[in-house]
């Protein structure tokens, strides 16, 4: 009798907003997730110049740390340019998304294709110069993309991109993973409570999705309840899932 091999269940973890601005919180997050995942199978989303106040090329010590992490196997993604949304949103729907889904941090939601491409290209160059290798892909701040950002992604041929509901290849449009990202929010009590509830649900749901994605942010370290939830969630998920890299998805079905 032929035995059917069970499909692999993957766990993909990322640290967002990696910047000299947040060096200490990033260190705390690395110290938290590294032993749970059993190695460097996580991604860092690097902001080239967070809010225009932390240019990576003027922080050589931090850039060297990024290269060390990359050399050790951590995936490096470009994560916007400033991370700050400075667009004037003409669409009422887009303006509503910008206000409700993030605190002025959906940088690529309102950019036209030309400006989005410029920021992506210059940001990619800065991060790649720091890490000494190509970035794994592009992930927009707050997972928010406008039409211009999508056009720029295709023009620059980033290998991978991600929003809140999927991972895909920009050039072909092929979807590599589906399902919401488990993440936490520290901005308000209500958002914190909601994110804790979602994480608790994720811990008890059956492992149906082939790929589960988890994202942590520097602000998470400001609240002990979030740190406890992240720790418990990751420890629960690794019992049934194998820690994986985003690039592992290129050879796997969504």
From TrEMBL:
Top-level taxon: Bacteria
Pfam families per record: DUF2334
Protein name as catalogued: Polysaccharide deacetylase family protein
Source species: Sphingomonas aurea
Upper classification of the organism: Bacteria, Pseudomonadati, Pseudomonadota, Alphaproteobacteria, Sphingomonadales
């Amino acid at each position: 009798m032929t035995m059917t091999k069970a499909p692999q269940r993957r766990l993909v973890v990322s640290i967002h907003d990696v910047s000299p601005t947040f060096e200490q919180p990033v260190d705390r997050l690395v110290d938290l997730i590294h032993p749970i995942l059993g190695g460097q199978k996580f991604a860092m989303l690097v902001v080239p110049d967070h809010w225009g106040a932390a240019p990576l090329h003027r922080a050589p010590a931090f850039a060297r740390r990024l290269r060390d992490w990359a050399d050790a196997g951590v995936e490096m993604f470009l994560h916007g340019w400033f991370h700050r949304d400075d667009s004037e949103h003409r669409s009422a729907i887009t303006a509503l998304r910008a206000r409700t889904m993030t605190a002025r941090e959906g940088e690529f939601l309102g950019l036209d294709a030309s400006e989005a491409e410029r920021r992506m290209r210059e940001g990619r160059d800065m991060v790649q110069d720091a890490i000494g290798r190509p970035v794994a892909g592009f992930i927009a701040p707050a997972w928010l993309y406008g039409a211009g950002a999508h056009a720029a992604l295709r023009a620059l041929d980033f290998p991978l991109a991600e929003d809140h509901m999927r991972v895909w290849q920009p050039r072909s449009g092929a979807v590599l993973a589906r399902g919401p990202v488990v993440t936490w929010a520290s901005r308000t009590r209500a958002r914190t409570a909601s994110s804790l509830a979602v994480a608790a649900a994720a811990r008890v749901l059956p492992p149906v999705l082939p790929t589960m994605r988890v994202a942590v942010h520097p602000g998470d370290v400001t609240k002990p309840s979030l740190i406890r939830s992240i720790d418990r969630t990751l420890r629960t998920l690794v019992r049934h899932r194998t820690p994986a890299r985003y690039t592992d998805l290129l050879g796997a079905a969504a």
